[in-house]
Specification:
Length: 189
């Protein structure tokens, strides 16, 4: 397998806009880093990693929860902030951590699920188009890696009132693997 891509690329920033100043905010971009030959088996999940340099980000000002979607050179982070809580979900190739992608985790405030799908080239192309179309909606972020049209990372967030949900896709065309995750954060009432 390949190595974790190094960070240190020039981040692209998206202004943090309040909900009243926008009805939809989505970012689709070609990431300013080359595609690295990493894979699903090199990912680690963390809820205690600090914010890492982001290639692209978007802030979702939901009703009771602030959610920031962040694309990293080696996957994603989602930062969740309420009046009394701050959580950072990191799914990435993390130097110094053993790769570990659990199928599920449930804590007092967050529920995480993951699975890995295997695709051939044709079905991966179809999935890429479907996810790209969904990520054109509000509160979404998708990054396509240059040089490989089916290499992408996408995050789509949803406001559920006292809960926030985000779904992610991480496509690795060299193996046909797609890591799909779904997380739900529940704010204290």
């Amino acid at each position: 397998m390949g190595v974790c891509p190094r960070s240190g690329t020039r981040p692209r920033r998206v202004p943090h806009l309040s909900r009243r100043h926008r009805t939809e905010l989505t970012v689709q971009s070609i990431l300013a880093v080359p595609y690295a030959d990493t894979g699903a088996d090199q990912l680690s999940l963390s809820f205690d990693e600090p914010l890492l340099p982001a290639l692209s980000s978007v802030h979702c000002a939901f009703e009771r929860v602030g959610v920031t979607l962040r694309l990293l050179g080696a996957s994603h982070q989602v930062s969740v902030v309420t009046a009394d809580t701050e959580i950072v979900e990191t799914l990435a190739c993390l130097p110094g951590r053993r790769p570990a992608l659990p199928p599920s985790i449930d804590t007092g405030s967050i529920s995480f699920r993951s699975r890995i799908e295997r695709h051939d080239a044709a079905s991966l192309t179809t999935l890429t188009a479907e996810v790209s179309s969904r990520a054109a909606g509000p509160d979404s972020l998708i990054g396509h890696y240059p040089g490989h049209p089916s290499a992408f990372t996408a995050i789509i967030a949803t406001d559920l009132g006292h809960r926030a949900r985000w779904d992610t896709w991480h496509a690795y065309p060299q193996t046909g693997d797609v890591v799909i995750t779904s997380s739900v954060f529940e704010a204290a009432r």
